[in-house]
Amino acid sequence: MNGKISNLWKKDGTKSVTSSLISILIGLAVGAVIILIMGLTNSNLGMRSAWEAIRLEFLGLFSTGRNSAGALTFGFNPVNMGDMLFRATPLILTGLSVAVAYKTGLFNIGAPGQYLMGTAFTLMLALGIPTEVVPAPVVWVIAFAGGILAGALWGCIPGLVKAFLNINEVLACIMTNWIAANLVTWMFDGSDFRNLVESTKSAYIYKTSYNGVQTAKMGLDAIFPNSQVNGGILIAIVIAILMYVLMNKTTLGYQLKACGSNRHAARYAGIADKRNIVLSMAIAGGMSGAAAALYYLSGNTEFFWNTYQSLPATGFNGIPVALLAVSNPIGVIFAGCFMSMLDVVGQQITNLTPYNEYISDVIVATIVYLSAFSLVIKMLLSGRKRKKLAAVVTEPTGTSGAAATAPGAAPLGDTRPVPETGEVGKGGDEV
């Protein structure tokens, strides 16, 4: 049993998951400390409110409000659960967008622009094709495919300039983000897609339900009644699984990762590096476009068409999701759900305590900061083991201290060739 646990701990994936969990726990602890400090230093808050906010920080997803005595109550809350899954849908897909690009050696900070392009084409197709002529389910499929294709084509732009002009993809993505923001605003400006029926909603595009196009609930509304959840979360999970298979079980995935590890070595091995760079960014863009498509095809969300002033936060939120998941497509599913859970927790803290929801932003920021140093955490986790191995090599049982510490001396009974001076550490690591 101990041998199995030891072998499991040696795996790189185990250390990656552990480092992510450590990041989450530290982030939650930092949030709790901040809440506690605010409660103790502000007479209007007090220790009681601080304790309630801390409980909601950890159990807010299961909050059911307050009872008649004013005490917090907890249990299965279908609305919170369903809303968490609904919000996780775009986060999972934008997280996949960043993760896939990172696996291939690229940093896709262009997810917001790809998300916007996916939004624009999804809404134009879903609202522009009359459902009196084309059945609504067919329109849904066309709009979903159109959103993916629009995001993929927009993702190709930084991929092309990276592959053929060697321009850093981060700079190219930043430029395409703002081009997309202004382009989408121009496309909707003066269009018939703006909500002119409700006079207070003219800055928004119609919901897709206005044309009878929305994602099917697939039975989830019975499990999570009165929530926003729909079948989009199931589609996102299937896409994540398919991306895992693509990246880890196919020749294409191997080629993409080979280009990410060393572009020049991959080219020497006969892999078309330029094609794979463009293809990886296209796949990443398609994931962002799919995120936008599923979010707005839900039929209960509105798009603010005047986008040139800001970029969608969902695109950027894919970065911490990918970091927390260590760019693993299956891990992205859980990381996306966790991040959306923090949104729900922030709302519960705002509604049930004197604190505001921005405490959840502090928690996310701390987790993201620590996730960026996941490699350091992994090194710390494995550092103690390496020290023990080095001690076994340099101080074997039954030898004198002088013999054990002599430069280039081999342990007693060791018949391996003695490494040359300067390579002792390397030999010790290979024990």
Low-confidence runs (pLDDT<50, min 5 residues)? 398-431
CATH domain fold name of the largest domain: ABC transporter involved in vitamin B12 uptake, BtuC
Can you tell me the CATH class of the largest domain?
A: Mainly Alpha
Q: Indicate the structural class.
A: mainly alpha
Summarize the structure.
The chain has helices at 2-10, 12-41, 46-59, 78-103, 111-128, 136-165, 169-188, 220-223, 232-249, 251-261, 263-268, 273-296, 313-324, 329-352, 358-371, 374-394, 401-405, 424-429, and strands spanning 63-66, 72-74, 204-205, 303-304.
Task: Please explain how this structure is put together.
The structure is a single chain. By secondary structure, this protein is mainly α. It folds into 3 domains: 1-76 and 354-384, no CATH class; 79-346, ABC transporter involved in vitamin B12 uptake, BtuC (Orthogonal Bundle), CATH 1.10.3470; 395-429, no CATH class. It is built from 18 helices and 4 strands. The protein has helices at residues 2-10, 12-41, 46-59, 78-103, 111-128, 136-165, 169-188, 220-223, 232-249, 251-261, 263-268, 273-296, 313-324, 329-352, 358-371, 374-394, 401-405, 424-429, and strands at 63-66, 72-74, 204-205, 303-304. The strands form 2 sheets. A two-stranded antiparallel sheet has the order 1-2. A two-stranded antiparallel ribbon has the order 3-4. Strand 1 (63-66) and strand 2 (72-74) form a beta hairpin. The longest helix is centred in the N-terminal third of the chain and has 30 residues, at 12-41. It is globular and about 65 Å long. The protein starts with a helix and ends with a helix.
